[in-house]
Amino acid sequence: MEAQGSRRRQLPVLLLWGARQQTVLCNESLMLEKLPACGKSFEEMMKKVDSKKWCNLTEFIMYYDNFTQCTEREANNASCFWPNPLAEGFITGIHKQFFSNCSSEKVHWEDPPDEILITLILIPVMLTCAMITLVVWCSKRSDILV
């Protein structure tokens, strides 16, 4: 019985020790020192892409993937989680530098002409009425069901 009580006391101590081991402070200054190298590398790679194609992700997806992996690696090396507000701020700066002219074209939705709209509304209504009529008619004719 005493051994079991001893184990119960050790469990919270082990749990607390494990939590303490995982609590590592983020070295933000180290991360902010290293992230510009990722931006510089991305900038060098983007020079290979015509600036008119900067809004076409398929033209530089590999470069952007390398940039993302670099920022994640540098954040992790500084014992910081990724993404974090500082890394996001850095990434946003890179986005502003390269993609500020890439606005998404908003599609202007319009209602279809009245003739089409009325047809699209009436077809399901008429089908529903027809199905209800068919069900009621079949339920009154019990001789076909047998």
UniProtKB/TrEMBL annotation:
One example GO MF annotation: coreceptor activity
Compartments it resides in: Cell membrane
Annotated transmembrane regions: 116-138
Single GO BP term: calcium ion transport
Topology with respect to the bilayer: Single-pass type I membrane protein
GO CC term, one of those recorded: plasma membrane
Keyword set, alphabetical order: Cell membrane, Disulfide bond, Glycoprotein, Membrane, Receptor, Signal, Transmembrane, Transmembrane helix, Transport
PANTHER family, alphabetized: RECEPTOR ACTIVITY MODIFYING PROTEIN RAMP, RECEPTOR ACTIVITY-MODIFYING PROTEIN 3
Family under the similarity heading: Belongs to the RAMP family.
Full protein name: Receptor activity-modifying protein 3
Organism field: Cyanoderma ruficeps (rufous-capped babbler)
